[in-house]
Amino acid sequence: MNFLYPTFLFLLSLIAIPVIIHFFNFKRYKTVYFSSLQFLFNIAKETRSRNRIKHLLVLLARILTIICLVFAFAQPFIPAKNNLKNNKFQTIAIYVDNSFSMNQIGTNGNLLEEAKNKAIEIVSSYSPSTNFELITNDLEPKHQHLLNRDQIIDYISAITTSPRTIKFSDIINRVKQIAKSANSLSTNICLLSDYQKHYFDFEKIENAPSTSIMLFPSTPIETKNLSVDSCWFDYPEHNINQQEKLQVKIVNHSNESYQNIPVKLYLNDSIKTLSSFSISGNTSQTITLAYTNISKGSINGKIELADYPITYDNVYYFNYNVSNNVNIITINGTNKSMFLSKLFNNDSLFIITEMSAQNINFQAFPSNQVILLNAIQNISSGLQQEILTFVNKGGSLVFIPISNNDDNYKSFFSSIGINVLGSDSSKNQVSTLNVQSPFFKNVFQKIDDNPQYPQVNMSYKISVTKGNVFDDLILTRNQNPLFTSIKQNKGKIYLFLFPFDEKYTNFTTHPLFVPIMYRICELSKNNSDICYNISPTVNVNIINTTNGNEDILELKNHKTGESFIPLQNVDDFDISLLPGNQLIYDGLYDITYKNNILSSISFNYNRNESQNIYYTPTELEEILKSRNFKVSLFNSSNNESISNQIKNIETGKPLWKYFILLALLFVLAEIALIRLIKN
Fold first, then answer.
1. What total number of domains does the chain contain?
2. CA distance 86 to 292
3. Treating both helix axes as pointing N-terminal to C-terminal, what angle do 381-392 and 406-415 enclose, rounded to 10 degrees?
4. For residue range 61-112, what is the model confidence (pLDDT) as tens digits?
5. 243 with 368, same domain?
6. Domain membership of residue 196 as a residue range
7. Which of 67, 102, 128, 428 would bridge with 111, disulfide CB 3.0–4.6 Å?
8. Maximum CA pair distance of the chain?
9. What's the predicted TM-score (pTM) here?
10. Domain of residue 205, CATH code
11. Residue 295 within any structural domain of the chain
12. Has residue 182 been placed in a domain?
């Protein structure tokens, strides 16, 4: 047992007062006149022992009364096992979890409101001179300094739900940063949260013996929740009048099964498809929404279902482009192919620019999707560097060789990981189409058992020298490739290993020629991601269609009209947009340049908050203790107020009330001894 104010113990000297009174008051004599002294002697003999006991008991009661009163003023207490109040230069940090999951319902109503009320009660339990710091998922700049009691209560009252989430390590680092700037030697962190498991990244946390953690759990009751988790298309390319199949993943986060739940698909703010689904408890299901593209340009989509009380994950945004044109550059060498010219010039889908190998406009490369090298004898180092840069940035290169030019192609082939082994003049070489390749997906409705393949009378033999991803599409009887694709960074290289000259092949007049060339152009369209998850590290890459490196792009929210300038990294081909913490709300955004819309992108909230996976307070307490944190768990299920629990934790179990009661008990005992026991 310790004393909060031990100086009051000097008042124990007051015990001398009843002792002095006892000796002087009870020693007084009264003269009694009797005719016979023998009669008086008999009375004294009978009562002497009883009076002595009574006087000693009264004295003891008075002494104990004084002792109890002095102890009460000295405020004794039993020290706490986890004494958090270990330094007068300390700071109280309060983290209020205002993520989406805190919109659930607990035993006392909305979890966020419950946490805010607890936070205010915590603040009120400390003296007005205490320094506080407030942390929320928004990590607002105005919270980056110490606050007094009135300031932090105002800030706590203004907390609202935020789409942002932070990790436990972010809280520890924020507390250390503020404590260091304020020269605080120790910090108590009050965690008011539902303790979702995804929020704790223990592996990134260093032991902090000067940091004490006070757990104030907000426990949700079992809540029903359905979420639209993600969506994707079966095919990445999108064309006019194409049948689309949109796959949508629905997750049921509760134990209850659902039947015939409606789901809506909006395209450009109009309902396109209405469907329904049934799902069992704690499972996920993928449903297919089918429709046809009836217009070109940007398609802004939204998937929506109705579910309460958690609503943030009921909507999922996406967008894509139904292609307009494919821009192609054809660089011709010794022979200009009339078949290529007729193919591309007779279709409005293609915009073709033809150049000779002696007069190449490299500045035109970035605005095209496909570069076709046709029958070039010598590929200069400058051209080789430019086309590889073009491919690395996402473009597609189609290479068509001339015959008997092994030596001149070695440098180019080596730069893409290929060795030229010579040429092969065997006839009727084509034997196999790799129809299992994604390249041929949906190209053919049916393939005959014995198809007539084109003839090839001359081809180059190659071997792979480095780890690029090769996909052999047309092969000889010996399984040597005649047409192959190579994944090169963001782009692709399509290699025809035989010349298109009519004396070497009939490929340009064969039925395979048109679908293969169309497929190359179709896969060369800029099919960017249909959506992104909001996070501080999200990175959006778009093609650089501006004129300079210093031009500024903006992101503009479709719904609110608000815009901001994201961090951007610009090069000749790409612009990387880094919205960072400026991006708060989900939805459709326009990328604008000088008030002109370049393209649109979609952002969705991270679905981690939909997961009903929590640490129990006792589990979390044990984990934190194992990492050498001083931890105290505050239980809201008992009848003791938070302020009393904090005082018990910080100062131990107070005993002054018990000593007041004992003092009153001894006073009553004294009265009883004097009144009830007669002399």
1. 5
2. 69
3. 40
4. 888 888 888 888 888 877 665 554 444 456 889 999 999 999 888 888 899 9
5. no
6. 90-222+612-651
7. 102
8. 165
9. 0.71
10. 3.40.50.410
11. yes
12. yes
